[in-house]
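fyi for ur records
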Amino acid sequence: MSNSAVPFTSTVVDGALSRDSTRAQKLSSGLHPHGPSAFQARKESPPAPIRPEHRINVTDAGVNYTIPVAIGKPAQIFNLLIDTGSSNTWVGASQTYHQTSTCKPTGKIVHTNYGSGGFTGAEYTDLVSLGPDFIISEQSIGVASTAQGLDEGVDGILGIGPVDLTADTLSGEPSVPTVADNLYKLGIIPSELIAISFAPTTRSEDTPNGELSFGDVDNTKYTGQIEYVPITKSSPANKYWGIDQSITYGSGTPILSQTAGIVDTGTTQLLLATDAFKAYQKATGGVVDSTTGLLTITQQQYDKLENLHFKIGNTLGRWKFRTM
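which gave:
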């Protein structure tokens, strides 16, 4: 849905839509031959109570969320996009990576593609800090020699997807441990768990209004009980953090029967299958804008607009519409 109060220029919106659509096509095509098999094979222990030091503030950058990551000694700060849809951590898109005393080149080439961009570069291990209590002494990072698809001011990606997604990205290695894998292996976090809280993009850009919690969850960010659901068995969503869900509109108009989707912090929109999008269009009376591909509605249609209901596992959530 679009309306005139959305706080982005048409250029920003069009660019984000194009990028996300291309990325979604790549993800849904199942081009990557790997998935979270290692995660599925592990038995998770219950998360420990939330500790303040496990929380990291992240920044609303308008069309994505970013986190400052310190690399090297003395530290160089990189502004990295938080991405559950990929698993490599890399830098060098906007600023040059400088080798310090903690840097170790491995002589290996790393490469990955996101559909809407990607990078190629050299692998290093280095001191990586996500905060004072999240320090990894020898984290594998990619240093880009070429990079495409990121917005200006974003230096690279913090990949927190399944480790299997790193397969075939590094020459001579079957996979690359993610930052979350290493935090758990080093005993820095008590559980292999990442909690994410992103506020709606109604504030100004570059405002810290999101949070990452490694190893536990922040109970101030939700109400009720958290329900954990298994990774879907449906391909290609099972190659990522994929879940099964169904969607209804208003009092019960079916939009999407239970099917698989991907939890992806690297995209901006909620993207639906074509038949589901058409069902939503019919329910709202919206008309597709030929430039953006979004639905446009009249004020009268907006006044009658109802919520979308997402059912994941046994939990029913609502996507509420409001003016901004």
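The first helix runs from residue 10 to 28. thats all i got for now
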